[in-house]
Please model this.
Amino acid sequence: MQLIPEYREDLPRVERFNFVARMTHWGHTVTFILCLLTGLVLFLNSGADWLAAIFGGYNGAGLVHRIAAVTLTIFLVIFVIFDFKGIINWVKDLLRFGKDDIIFVMKFPLEFLGFPVKMPPQTRFNGGEKGNSMLTPTCVILLVLSGYIMWFPTIFPAGLVRISYPIHDIAMVLATFMVCMHGYLGSFHPGSGESFWGMWKGTVREDWAKHHHAIWYEETYADKTDADSDAE
Amino acid sequence: MALKTNLYDVSKCTACRGCIIACKDWNQLPAVIEPFKGNYCTHEDTNGDTFTIMRFMEYEEDPADDVKWHFLKYQCMHCLDPACMKVCPRHAYTKTDWGATFHDPEKCVGCQYCTYACPFHIPKYRKREDKITKCTLCVERVEAGLTPACTRTCPTGALSFGDRHELLDYAEERVKFLRANGFPNATIYGKLELGGLNKLYILTDTPDKFGLPIDPKVSSTIPAWKDWIQPYVGWLIPLALAGSAFSFVTTRILAGKHEEHAEGGHE
Model:
């Protein structure tokens, strides 16, 4: 059984994510999972001693949580500094949320389970990806802000510190929910599996791009005769 | 077991600070020297090495008179339903059967959730150990049949220790006496506040004059967080994992039925 579609170098490919976007993505993958596992130690009300033991006990888990959190913040800052244009384009694409995206999201449960579905043409990010792109970064920003407030409570008003705990928890649960779905859809789900290579190597198959993100492909590559050489 | 409580009678207190010293001595706490701030307070607030403090609140009734003070011994109130115990993710807080809220430093990870949950802002962070500390109501002394160190040392009888209901009876009598003798606003503090505190105060004036909240409240975010978000919202995570696992199976089964979509996992 094939888990992820094969990386086909022999077929024409187009660039989907640049280096900075990919570095931010995978940097956040590692740091988010570290933060999640070490944070669950407290979220589960000390009900998982074995999880704390992996990180050297409860104090060790706290230390790993903070180191991973700072690293996550650094990746965030790098992304803003080195690919600000990319963020703007990302946000612009999210603002194109429209009828086609709603239809996509409505039909998606069938696609999710593996039924063949005819989807309307999508922009760079499809309806589901747009939702994920809005929710997860918002939650991560909330996690970062509330996290630093709880880390240095003395320099913030007490009321702000007090609401940071439930905010950190809600944002964690929502972000983790989205990350679980995103992780699965971006890898083992047969329909969208090619997008894994878009984030890992930076390019996707041209025919996949045409099929899954028709509007994006038309706007970015269709009018260029040398789409293939652009890909690198 | 009956609740055992500390009663502090403001009307008998001379603010000698003997209780602060006795507390430091028994708990082997180092001195914390704060800069002079123009009043008689040695400490503005409790801290990681100071479990109890004496507050001096200056006031002038008549400009012709000298400055007067309200004194207040301030420490953990040992709430009968403590918010610190509720939020602590390490279960470091326990309630003894006689009513002391005990904090176990062995379990503490210094997250300070309790500091901000406490309506009195009492649990304090001790940086050198990365742990929270606070008044223990001298658990080890009381369980050995002694009275708390502060009560033991009080020279004026302002502090007493005993059964909560007996002390409450005494406090009612004392407040009646005070009201009849020049303190019309005298009141008991700790009988009903927050469902009862295991520290009782006899105040000669309304609580706000002593810097105590008249109606202390646990922040409403705490029940929302501990009773609702943590036990229920968290289930979204296993739901996402289960949904993914389910889809992993169904997509593979259905892919066999729709061969035309199977090529390279690319539909």
Remarks:
- The longest helix of chain B spans residues 236-257.
